[in-house]
Design a protein that fits this description.
This is Zf-CSL-domain-containing protein. By secondary structure, this protein is of the alpha+beta class. The chain has two domains: 62 residues, Microbial ribonuclease fold; 38 residues. It contains three helices and six strands, in the order ββββαββαα. The radius of gyration is 27 Å and the shape is elongated.
Length: 128
């Protein structure tokens, strides 16, 4: 989509807690609206429900996600923290499994080539 009515910074928009959207005044008298979910999905087009005008919302996704996280409180924040730590543990476990597989395959290659283990490591006399 190339024809925007305007480009508006997210900081110039107002957060509406009741409707859970950012809004900005439209020339028709209504308001352009965009939700945090749309922004989190990298959608940057705010629409007016009363007319065909659209605006492009200019924002930094990293700053927005940090702002959303900082504004979370109570159960939703603790649930997200739990999800993040569980995901990190799973990623660490996968990395460890990948390293183990790599070591096993390299060890198997060395054993199949019948090279002495010491000859595969080059040591200089100065390091001994």
């Amino acid at each position: 989509m190339g024809a925007y009515y305007d480009e508006i910074e997210i900081e110039d928009m107002v957060w509406d807690e009741e409707k859970a959207v950012y809004h900005y005044p439209c020339p028709c008298g209504d308001r352009f609206e965009i939700s945090r979910r749309q922004l989190a999905n990298y959608e940057d087009i705010a629409t007016c429900p009363s007319c065909s005008l659209v605006i492009r919302v200019v924002y930094d996704p990293v700053r927005l996600s940090q702002f959303i996280f900082d504004s979370m409180t109570g159960p939703s924040r603790s649930c997200l923290n739990s999800l993040i730590s569980r995901t990190n543990r799973q990623m660490t476990k996968r990395r460890l499994q990948r390293v183990r597989r790599m070591v096993r395959s390299q060890t198997a290659r060395m054993m199949s080539s019948r090279m002495p283990l010491r000859s595969s490591i080059s040591l200089t006399p100065s390091l001994l």
